[in-house]
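Q: Focus on the chain.
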Amino acid sequence: MTEAEWLACKDPREMIDYHRMKTAARRLRLLAAACVRRAVPAGAPPLVGEVLDAVERYADGAATRGEFLAARKAVRKAIKDKLPAVRVLANLADDAMEGVTVTIENVRRRSGWAAECGLIRCIFPFRSVSFSPSWRTSTAIALAGQMYESREFGAMPILADALQDAGCDSADVLDHCRDAGAPHVRGCWVVDLVLGKE
């Protein structure tokens, strides 16, 4: 897949296949959670947010396997009880546990997969990017950490400015931060680089 094809791709399955062997389970888990967060309707039961939080914490090593298994068990019980807005979590739970695939099919919207493809581009850069440790200033780390914890990524252009002030001249990094049309979620490859996450 060329970079032009990557940027134009409208099928998330092709994008995942392209990156499958290059990625860690953590990023796939965070992608799965981001896709489901986007798909669940407003007013979903609190269980949905709790399970997604557990998936993200487990991806980052902040939740134990036992905590994750408890969340998965709660999802299966909710499906058995026919609670709305929960069925999509069943495959998420299995996939996030294994860290092998992401069931994007389960969160497909009638409008297509454009948003899911945007999430993939946020989490997986097309190519490896060199990132100088000198760009990890206290300002850049604070901005990235705040966005990661709050799941609010409106300060990405400010992060670009902070990185540039620190000497960052990578067009890939700066353009990703300043792309007003790009979605950003936990696992964003630039934020991960700033925070030293992999």
Summary: The two ends are 23 Å apart (CA to CA). Residues 97-105 have pLDDT under 50 and may be disordered.
